[in-house]
């Protein structure tokens, strides 16, 4: 199986104008409108999730990182693995890509998540990039990713659109890992 194969899916998400504007701004800053998603299994088959200091309490999600201008998704995988987990990661295979059109009124942003299953690791994560503000890690069984998605989907207030957006990739991965 090629590193570029996997399941391709599309979705649409209606969000607030504020969220769409923020996603457009981030896309313009980086020159890209996408990310890489790290699905990192441990030897017991559990999947790594992380949280950051500025997330709502209890908000854990799969590690992700934006694509830099001209960077391939595979190169972003290796860079993000080092930055967020402090180790050299290896790709087992590409699970797929989830293309999401996020819209509000007549404004929209096209955002693709490239999702890679890493080879399992027993090393403890130690983030290299302190600007990421990662404050904790947990592991969950693959069938618990749906609950992680539900937790994200139900975040309150200003986190609501972000959580609904983040839940989509968790649901995708849960299906792929079933």
* Domains, number: 1
Oligomerization: single chain
- Total number of strands: 7
Low-confidence stretches: none
Rounded to the nearest angstrom, the radius of gyration is 15 Å
Helix content: 25-40%
Strand content: 25-35%
- The coarse overall form would be globular
The N- and C-terminal alpha carbons lie at a distance of 19 Å
- Return the CATH architecture: Alpha-Beta Complex
The CATH superfamily is identified as: Nucleoside Triphosphate Pyrophosphohydrolase
Main structural class: alpha/beta
In CATH terms, what is the fold-level topology?
A: Nucleoside Triphosphate Pyrophosphohydrolase
CATH classification, class level: Alpha Beta
Q: Please list the strands of the largest sheet in the order they lie side by side.
A: 1-5-6-2-4
Order of helices and strands: EHEEEHEEEHH
* Mean of residue pLDDT values: 93
Tell me the number of helical segments per DSSP (H or I, 4 or more residues long).
Answer: 4
Largest sheet, described in full? 5 strands, mixed
């Amino acid at each position: 199986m090629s590193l570029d194969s996997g399941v391709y899916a599309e979705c649409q998400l209606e969000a607030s104008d504020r969220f769409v504007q923020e996603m457009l701004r981030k896309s313009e800053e980086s020159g890209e409108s996408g990310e890489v998603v790290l699905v990192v299994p441990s030897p017991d088959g559990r999947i790594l999730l992380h949280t950051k200091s500025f997330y709502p309490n209890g908000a854990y999600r799969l590690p992700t990182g934006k694509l830099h201008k001209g960077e391939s998704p595979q190169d972003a995988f290796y860079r993000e693995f080092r930055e967020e987990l402090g180790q050299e990661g290896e790709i087992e295979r590409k699970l797929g890509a989830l293309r999401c059109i996020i819209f509000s009124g007549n404004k929209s942003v096209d955002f693709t998540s490239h999702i890679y299953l890493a080879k399992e690791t027993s090393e403890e994560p130690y983030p290299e990039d302190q600007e990421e503000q990662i404050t904790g890690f947990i592991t969950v069984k693959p069938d618990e990713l749906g609950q992680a998605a539900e937790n994200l989907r139900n975040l309150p207030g200003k986190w609501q659109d972000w959580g609904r957006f983040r839940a989509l990739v968790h649901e995708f991965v849960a299906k792929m890992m079933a």
